[in-house]
Amino acid sequence: MKHRFLMTALLIGTFCLATGCAGHVIRTHESVSRDTTWIQFTQKESPFVVNGLVGGEHISQYRLLGFEGERYRITGRGEDLYMNIFHGNGADAHGTGDTYVVAVIDLDALITVELSAHPVSQYQLRIEKIK
Known about the structure:
By secondary structure, this protein is mainly beta. It has a single domain, classed as Jelly Rolls (Sandwich), CATH 2.60.120.380. The protein is 14% helix and 57% strand. It is built from 1 helix and 10 strands; from the N terminus they run H-E-E-E-E-E-E-E-E-E-E. The chain has one helix at 2-19; strands at 25-30, 34-39, 48-55, 59-67, 71-77, 81-86, 91-96, 99-104, 108-117, 120-130. It is globular. The model is unreliable at 5-20 (pLDDT under 50). Residues 1-18 form the signal peptide.
């Protein structure tokens, strides 16, 4: 099982670099059961799209730094996928199921998208800045 997750992580990284979403990535951190990726939209306006595999005890987190007046559409798709959006007091989130719109209402906000599944799910996460 560990080898499958390792191979998947390598493929995801290769896919991200090949499709250009690496331009959004500020930093990544991988641990045994949690992977965290920080992204931004300051230099690149195209959507951030990533395909991955999550399940069991493993959780993938994507953290987006947003600024006042910005809005983002966040869509997560995958069989048996659970997606949670955490935004603190600096943003409002509206949506159901697999799509949410998050609006930053304070000076800034750290928006966290957390993906998990039981037992396992291949997923696609798409985050786009909207007007």
